[in-house]
Specification:
Blueprint: H1 11-27, H2 32-61, E1 63-65, E2 71-74
Antiparallel strand pairs: 1-2
Helix pairs in contact: 1-2
């Protein structure tokens, strides 16, 4: 399992890491201390994935539509 810092991961990398953790925990052959560490990393990865998805959604929502419903450009999303 990669120990790359979560904040440096792409969405796809984080999702793969999360899937690896889930698989390992579901097997049930990981010692308790390591399970806790894996769970904590999994929680970080989950949060990172949610953040990246929210950012993508905001970018999509910022696309401006013309009166006939076709995209006519974008505008910066402002929080």
């Amino acid at each position: 399992m990669s120990e790359k810092p979560v904040v440096e991961m792409s969405f796809e990398e984080a999702l793969r890491g999360l899937e690896e953790i889930v698989t390992r925990l579901e097997r049930g052959d990981v010692p308790l201390d390591q399970s806790i560490t894996l769970y904590e990393r999994g929680a970080e990865l989950k949060k990172h994935c949610e953040t990246r998805l929210n950012e993508a959604q905001m970018r999509v929502e910022a696309i401006r539509l013309s009166e006939d419903g076709t995209p006519k450009g974008t505008e910066p999303f402002s929080a």
